[in-house]
Design brief:
By secondary structure, the protein is an all-alpha fold. It has 5 helices and no strands.
């Protein structure tokens, strides 16, 4: 076996976080986790921490919590895509890995929104895909900045 051939264990190590992230997105994209089902439990938690809010205030807060969830969740998913591409494309540069990670995130977000269009208590919105991609881009930008500060030579690999 050539030293350049990677064993199945390597591929599992590289890609399992992406698979886990996709499974989490699939679970969160169900009818059971629609806004009509998350409002009550999230409101109880919020009010236990911050005190009582009116129904009008809660609608706005709940909306922001859910959209923040999109941004953060897909940001983290984008990082799993970035890590997987970084590990499996040995001669790539950070920008290529980032582009592939953003593509994976955008495809996942688009498929998720399409799936939600068939559920009675969920909506499908291109704005959510945009929020998802912005989350992934923001997290990847944060990784880039940290790498420039702490590991500048790692960003570009020798050809």
């Amino acid at each position: 076996m050539s030293s350049n051939v990677r064993r199945p264990r390597f591929w599992i190590k590289a890609w399992w976080p992406v698979a886990v992230g996709l499974c989490i997105i699939a679970i969160e994209s169900t009818e059971a986790l629609g806004a009509d089902h998350t409002s009550g439990p999230l409101r109880l938690i919020f009010q236990a921490i911050f005190g009582h809010v009116s129904n009008v205030e809660w609608e706005n807060i709940h909306h922001l919590i859910r959209k923040s969830g999109h941004f953060i969740g897909y940001g983290l998913l984008g990082l799993t895509w970035l890590r997987a591409w970084w590990m499996t494309l040995p001669r790539s540069v950070f920008l290529q890995d980032t582009a592939l990670a953003l593509l994976g995130t955008a495809m996942t977000a688009s498929a998720d929104e399409y799936h939600q269009s068939f559920l009675p208590n969920r909506t499908s919105s291109p704005w959510d895909v945009l929020i998802d991609c912005c989350g992934a881009l923001a997290m990847q930008l944060l990784v880039y900045i940290c790498m420039r500060i702490f590991r500048p030579k790692r960003l570009e690999r020798a050809r």
